[in-house]
Amino acid sequence: MAARGRNQRGAAAVELALVCIPLMLIALGCVEFARAMLTYEALLKSARDGVRYLSFFDPAVAAEYPTGIASDRVVFGLNSPPAGATPRVEGLTVSMVEICDRVSATACPGEQFANVPTGQGTINLVRVTIRGYRYTPRFPGAGFIGSIPFSPISATMRQVFP
């Protein structure tokens, strides 16, 4: 009986090491997935903020239509960001923001934004889309994955009717 106990010495530590490695990788994968979902949600909230801002303006009055300010609100969360401001989401740039409305819908071909029929009349729409964002994992072991492209993230709202 004494010989049998000596052969098993350290077996539990080896088993623990073999089980901990996959469990740690799964836990880190869950954390990285949660970070990706948090990033997606932040991008969606940014698009909503930009479209909510534009919904109060008439795009037919080009001099007063603040597309640049709306793009800054989407990226930085500010109307006039100072030089060197950090974006709300790492890697987000103004060039990723597209705006479609009843005057200019070039970024949304085949879609209607002016006089859209509803059950009780017509409305005008405005849409802000974030296109081309790539999520980069932070976990060092996920470097083999590289960056992950997000599908376009957009928000649409009713716009003022002239």
Write up what this structure looks like:
The structure is a single chain. This protein is α+β, with helices and mostly antiparallel strands. The chain has one domain (9-159). Helices cover 37% and strands 17% of the residues. Strands 1, 2, 3 and 6 form a 4-stranded antiparallel β-sheet that branches. The N and C termini lie far apart (93 Å). The relative contact order is 0.17. The mean pLDDT is 88.
Show the helix and strand layout.
Blueprint: H1 2-7, H2 11-54, H3 67-76, E1 97-100, E2 116-118, E3 121-130, E4 134-135, E5 148-149, E6 153-159
Antiparallel strand pairs: 1-3, 2-3, 3-6, 4-5
Helix pairs in contact: 2-3
Keywords:
alpha+beta, 162 residues, two-stranded antiparallel ribbon, 3 helices, four-stranded antiparallel beta sheet
Unreliable residue runs: none
Count of β-strands: 6
What is the CA-atom radius of gyration, in angstroms? 25 Å
How many independent structural domains? 1
Beta strand %: 15-25%
Structural class call reads alpha+beta
What is the subunit organization of this protein?
single chain
Distance between the termini: 93 Å
Mean pLDDT: 88
Number of helices: 3
Using the alpha-carbon principal axes, give the shape: elongated
What is the ordering of alpha helices and beta strands? HHHEEEEEE
Helix share, percent: 25-40%
Tell me about the biggest sheet?
4 strands, antiparallel
